[in-house]
Amino acid sequence: MRSILAVLLSVFTATVSATPFPSTYQPLPSSPTLITNATILTGDGRRLDEADMYISDGKVVWVGEGTVPSDGVNTIDASGKWLTPGIIDVHSHLGVYPSPGVAAHSDGNEATAPVTAEVWAEHSVWPQDPGFSRAIAGGITTLQILPGSANLFGGRSVTLKNIPKNTYQAMKFPGAPYGLKMACGENPKRVYGGRKQAPSTRMGNVAAYRASWIRAQRYIRDWEQYEQKMAKKSANVEDDSDNNSNSALAAALIKPPKRDLELETLAGVLKGEILVHMHCYRADEMMTILDMADEFGYKLGTFHHGVEAYKIADELANNDVCGALWADWWGFKMEAYDGIQENIAMVDRPENSCAIVHSDSDEGIQRLNQEAAKAMSKGQAAGLDIPPERAIRWITSNAAKSLGIAEQTGTLTPGKMADVVIWNQNPFSVYAKAQQVFIDGAMVFDRDNSALQPVSDFELGQLLEAAQ
Amino acid sequence: MKLGFITVLLTFTCSIALAQDLLIMGANLHTQSDAGVIENTDILIKDGRIAKIAPRIPTNKMIKVINANGRPVTPALFAGVTVSGLSEVEAVSEAVDSSYRELYTELMHPEFDVRMAYNPHSSVIPITRVEGFGFALLAARGGDKTLSGHGGLVRFDGGYDSFEGKPVVYVQTSGRSAASVGGSRVAHWMLLNQTFAEAMTDEDLTLITPQGAALLKSASDDGLFLFHADRAADIMRVLAFAAEHKLSPVIHGGSEAWMVAKSLADAGVPVILNPLENLPASFESLGARLDNAAILHKAGVPIIFSSGETHNARKVRQLAGNAAANGLPHSAALAAISSTPAEVFGAEPRSASEGARADLVIWSGDPLEVTSQAQQVILGGIPDTMVSRQTLLRDRYLDTDSAMPRAYINP
Asked: Which residues of A touch B91 (CB under 8 A)?
């Protein structure tokens, strides 16, 4: 009888804590690889010149000095080349706004209600988006796919490893936490205000966020109370062995709260299991959002876009919040009016900062190294000391921190995933190209070998006559 | 009367500003002419023009000297097809003048001249200029009309009438714009054929006004027609239409232009393209590829780069750099954002040679490299202040020890 009860309990527990749509990711085949004589940017702020690195079983084994088995090791001479961790883009809409950008593919914004925390970006991802393979050629090994910014709560994000598979589950980064996309400012108020519904103002935005968090708090409490009752009943079963079948039945009859996908996601944030990715441009609005996070006791993970982040760089660092930013976008809407090209460098300046270069673009993701190069050089021109080994963090380790995967990737640290890019030269250049890209130790792209250049189903066989 | 006074005043102001001669010493000069790159040369500038290019030019107290110290100097660059000075903030429709809609008529208006709305005091102009840009092509943006208006080149020198070159008429022929014009790209061609027939005979005008007809006629004689077309098949239709109506066409978009490079070269038709386009963004650009520019150049097609962006038009330098990284010779990539657009659109040459306008930029390094900066922009022989709203915002917030609010910091 006790086992039946356990099953009943576990069924109810499972309804809230299960992880549906699980990752089926498997690394591609790899062999132990020694890369020699490279300029290595480790991703944690160090630079090693004419250095070696050894990767095996999908992991970084050592960087700098170490031993290598006497046979079975593939050696790559990287003289004159540069080596970095795999590049991570924390803000992509590949798959949800894929190429070709036809209306039938427009799957990134569930713009039918301002609060849609219940939708999951992964259910929109089209794995055949040719953008994924273009991004591999730019050294992107991990990317976060976000819903758009029409809604206050846009839905869950998903973090993918950038291997060309037929399902998103097979790309899903094992163990990566979910993110929740939220949006400040003009977009939600324009989309819904334009329809004469709430929110139509910035104050309307904030009121609606707060109302949602209050519902989420209540939802957590309802489940806690239910679990307490169940625990109590369960204890009674233990005490009352004569009558245990009746007690077990009574326990089974305690009705759980109604499961709510939207509130499950919001509750996940309040419990610290889901990371908040907040689209927000203006400095004053970001400060409002930080206060709101304090009010409801959750952690704000990353502000995205933040064209005015440079105005509150200290506050962001003090609150341990990342800023995922563009190198030079500005002026496309009012809240982007004060954008400056030194934004990333100035957000990077305080101690304990977390500056990130993001793309939000199927073009930008292909050359995030160039975006970082622009930001680095503007910072240097403004007198800030930013060597490449520091700037590379903006597209590797800081990005990994933002996505909650810093333990697994983002730096070339022994034991971490062997996500690695070999560049033909200093990556902070318009002429730099990713020569070879490794994900979990497997070479997934080689510029000199067409057999290692993935082509999506969509692109196969197009323009046959033109290609002659 | 009033206008005349302003003109006099402007001329007067300019002549004062032009008074001082300028000498750039030790330039690594990318002439964008047959002279190629001249190493370690001096450049003397008088009355807004390049007076002399020679190894050692004697100076005197009356001449302002800028030492380039061996750094690259190029003509001021072309910012692409933009709405600079026509759009303060893209999403603030009341501050945008680049397209027409909901006119009282249902007619097309090729006579819609965006230059009438050009504002040289827009913050966009100095923000773009300090990055090394001296001119751009003003666009009449698409919307749902086959003929969306006309524009032309503008110099970023702060003048109200700093226009140059030929009138450029904007023509939409792509499938995306066709969705709102009869639901097929065929509708574009139908309307264009009818419009040109009406304009040339001047009778029974039903699609355009008499002014529109006059504009089309004059532009057929001495103007250019910028056809937005990406698909190879559409480009071939443009070539045929232009030949039939004796127009000078330019292809704008051209994702698949490489597929018809020979036809373009034979017809001598230039292509304005974005060399970063390598995705099948639509069924019109399935053939988009990174070496589009290199293939076109090799075939002898004049190429010009544009991102179509206005606020971030400065990115066009990165476009050229990427084209150079994908097979296009460095000098051709630089020409695509300097001398070629000037030549195609009928402006004064943007090559650094004696007698040419002194619109020059001194760079910290390779002008196509993303880590290089424009260190000094010179337009019409006048060194720019290198200040923009963005450099001021930067300087206001770069300071870390201010006890007072930032509003009190006015750099």
From this structure: 186, 332-334
